[in-house]
Amino acid sequence: MRPGVSFEAEGPDGNGLLARLPDPKGVHEVVAVRTSQRTLELAPTSKLLYASDAARTPELYYLAARGWRAALAEVLDEALPAPDAEDAGRRILRDNALALYGSPA
């Protein structure tokens, strides 16, 4: 891999495809962090719910949840003291949905 290149592939004709990402993270992680930052600027954590648009493939649910949880943790750790960040994360990822929809029977 060439320096400064995050992804490199060579096609059958010998032409290569290079992609330079603005961050060592993947594009999806960068978008998740920025979206989380902007969302937390607009609404209190008591009004936010996590949801994924992942559909059909169980692996997509897992990957989406893992990526967004990591992004949310990064943003909350920067914005709040540790105990408050943990409480906010728990509310966004679980407690707000339970309060709104109730616990499944």
Structural features, described:
With 105 residues, this protein is mainly α. The chain has one domain. It is 55% helix and 8% strand. It has three helices and two strands. The chain has a two-stranded antiparallel sheet. The protein is globular.
How far do the termini sit from each other?
52 Å
Helix content: 55-70%
Beta-strand percentage range: 5-15%
N to C succession of SSEs: EEHHH
Biggest sheet architecture:
2 strands, antiparallel
The secondary structure category is: mainly alpha
Total strand segments? 2
Number of helices, where a helix is a run of at least 4 consecutive DSSP H or I residues: 3
**Overall pLDDT:** 79
| Shape label | globular
| CA radius of gyration | 18 Å
- Which spans of ≥5 residues are poorly predicted at pLDDT below 50? 4-8, 17-23
Number of domains: 1
Short description:
The chain is mainly alpha-helical.
What's the layout of helices and strands?
Layout: E1 7-10, E2 16-19, H1 27-42, H2 58-79, H3 82-101
Antiparallel strand pairs: 1-2
Which key phrases capture this entry?
single chain, 105 residues, mainly alpha, two-stranded antiparallel ribbon, 3 helices, 55% helix, 8% strand, globular
